[in-house]
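Example record for the data management plan.
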Amino acid sequence: MTIDRSTQAERILLALIRISIGWVFLWASIHHFGNNAYVGNFLSGTKTFHFLYGPLAQSSFLPVVAFLVEYGHMLIGLSLISGLFVRASAPFAILIMVTYWTAHMDFPYIDNVNDFMIDYHLIYALALGVLILRRAGHYYGLDGLVARLPVYEQNKALHWLAA
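Corresponding structural encoding:
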């Protein structure tokens, strides 16, 4: 069986998108690791949804929120880069991107007047949705290997992880 060039090009492109977005998440984790003040400053600087995010910046839960942000970014980044459990990590990545989109919003603009309603956070969220639908972890990633393991094949409850 031969794979036509367009199919091979699509697989390469999906793997590159997956790895690139994974690097964005991993770098965010590395760059701000151990800095609760970064998360607090980000949350206190929100505008449109400040009533939601602002109190978190001043709460006793800030260290917990910072921990979840740091390690969530790290796990999502490692998952996307390795292609392992992409279908499990990508929905969390979409949730984070939509959260950042609302946090950056100064309605109807996002980060600045050049971003009217849509910015890169929504584009990342859409791309992550495509990665889920196209099973991007199977292309040059570990999901394809995991899907062939006997323990995975025998346990139907695990199929959603690397389906």
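Summary line stored alongside the record: The chain has nine helices and no strands.
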